[in-house]
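Table 4 source record.
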Amino acid sequence: MSLTDWLIDIALIGLVVLQVRGRRLTLRTLLLPVALVAWAGAQYLRTIPTGGNDLELIVPVALLGLALGIGAGVLSRVHRTTDGAVIVRATIAAAVLWVVGVGCRLAFQVYATHGGGASIGRFSVEHHLDPSAWTAAILLMAFGEVIARTAVVGWRGLSARRQPTAPRIASA
C-alpha cells in the first residue's frame, strides 16, 4: 500500500466522520468522495475479469458496497435550515456503516500487502479466481458505497431544498 492509498482511505473515513457534527451539503461535499474513488479506479482498475469464478467474487462484494452506501445515506439526517442551507449530519449508525466498508477494504489491502498475499494467491488458484478479480471487487465495492451514499444524500438534499423554510421568529 502506498501513502496515497492510505490517504484516500483516511480521507473517505474523515469525510463522513466530519459529518457527524453536521455540515452544509454542497456540490463539493457530494462530489469529493466520488472524485477520490474515480481517481483510485483510474489508477488501479485495468479490467473486470469475468472468467472462472471471478464474478462470484466481484458481484457480491460490489453489492455489499451498494448496500453499505444506501444504508449510510438513509441513516444520515438531511434538513434545511431557516436560512435555506441544506445540512447533512451522519448519525452514528451511518458513520459505522461507512467506516465498516472503508475499514474492510483497508484491512484487506493491509493483509494482502503485509504477508497475506501468498494465502490470497492460493485461495485464488483453488477457487479459479484471476488475481485482478480482487482489485476489481474492492474498487467496485468502493464505487458502490460512495455512489450509493452520494445519490441517496443528494436526492434527500434536493428534496429538503424544495421544502419551504420555516419563518424566522424575531426575538424581542
